[in-house]
Amino acid sequence: MNAVAHPDARPDLHRPGVGAVLVSTWRVGTPERQRAAVEAIRTAWERREWPDLGLLSYSVHIGTDGDTLLHYSQWTGQSAYDDFVRAYRDDRNAEIDAAVPGIERVELRRYAPVHRSAVRGGTGAGELPGVVVVVEADFDGPGEGRREAWVDAVFAALDEDTAAGRVSGGISGQFHLSVDGGRVLNYAEWESEQAHKEWLADDGRQGEMWQRVHHHPGLTGGRVRRYTPALTLSAGV
Prior knowledge:
This protein is of the alpha+beta class.
């Protein structure tokens, strides 16, 4: 059973059976190398059999910074990923590195399945994102319910925005909690990069509810990066 690329290049964020999500970042240096790396990944995966049924999908996103790639993969469980690393990962990475030398593999984090999600209008049916915004919020340790409370605070601030008539170009948001207890990741789909920039610049986001988000107990920092979906692979039928 070989890997098959999907036309819209997006992961199915509500796919049943997901027990673990792995997210990693690569630095490749230039937009040309970003595109070359995506094609090298496609080639390396499509010319081999799908490694294990425990891997449900593997998606690659191109950073709007002209440098990074984001990898988002869905697994039946953490042990399925560990089995993949032992048996299948090295030869694929070797082929990719031969095609695009000098890739820097920055970080890999393990996450539980979606903790909480929101979709505009209840369904978001037919809405294709122009950009994916990945928000990473770091905490100084697991702490009893602090990350969950932070996610709840984000939803409360968004609800206040809606009640005040502040409209954004956000389509959906999926919040993951890292297995190590130190991070929350929000994988959010937006209409466009410009819509997200305008939302960030809105003075309404300086209100009390958003200040609670920005100054939440245990929160030590975070990052916001924007990507365009480039490739999603899964097992062929």
